[in-house]
Design goal:
The protein is an alpha/beta fold. The chain is built from 6 helices and 10 strands, in the order αββααβαββββαβαββ. The strands form 3 sheets. It has a 6-stranded mixed sheet with strand order 4-3-7-8-9-10, sandwiched between helices. Strands 1-2 form a two-stranded antiparallel ribbon. A two-stranded antiparallel ribbon has the order 5-6.
């Protein structure tokens, strides 16, 4: 897996603090600095390659930076996508959940998922695991089957704990850390 453009883009990522939480700003995770189509294309190509698309009925992602990933993958693998939103619509079958990240707490809402749906969950980054764990547990409560989890950046060092808690392997493209105010790849 080359991901040369994604790796090169790490150097351009500013670091900001939310309290004690060091947050990196990257086009894939925030839409800033300027998003480059060649980087997004490289990421989507690799996610397409590693995903379990044969058993997938729907691609699910969280608001908001998973949107370009899920939509881009939907175009490539010809599967519908579902956005878990921070807005309640009050539609029949809507399911609410509480999301807690390293810097915020939010209510989120799931629509268009039914019992038996086979889901590939995709997102931009796993850090505290708050978004991933909350959404996957809510999808399982609905009766959906999670067949794959695909994440671009792995900032956490607790991926194994999340995999054990959720009972599924989490596939990530790059492991990253913030070191002395810089975003760097770790082995």
């Amino acid at each position: 897996m080359a991901l040369d453009r994604l790796r090169a883009s790490l150097a351009e990522s500013p670091i900001v603090r939310f309290g004690e939480y060091e947050y990196f700003v990257h086009p894939i995770t925030d839409g800033i600095p300027l998003g480059r189509p060649e980087v997004l294309d490289e990421v989507l190509s690799e996610l397409t390659r590693i995903g379990d698309w044969n058993r997938c009925d729907k691609i699910v992602t969280a608001e908001s930076m998973g949107f370009p990933l899920a939509a881009g993958l939907a175009m490539r693998v010809r599967k519908p996508y579902v956005f878990v939103r921070k807005r309640q619509y009050g539609l029949p079958g809507e399911v609410s959940l509480k999301q807690t990240t390293g810097y915020s707490k939010t209510d989120m809402f799931i629509n268009n998922i039914q019992r038996g749906d086979r889901i590939v969950f995709v997102d931009d980054v796993i850090s505290t695991g708050g978004t991933l764990v909350a959404i996957v547990k809510a999808l399982c409560t609905i009766g959906a089957e999670i067949v794959d989890i695909l994440i671009v950046f792995e900032k956490t060092r607790e991926k194994a704990r999340f995999e054990k808690e959720l009972g599924i392997r989490i596939k990530t493209l790059l492991k990253v850390d913030v070191v002395r105010g810089k975003l760097v790849e770790r082995a």
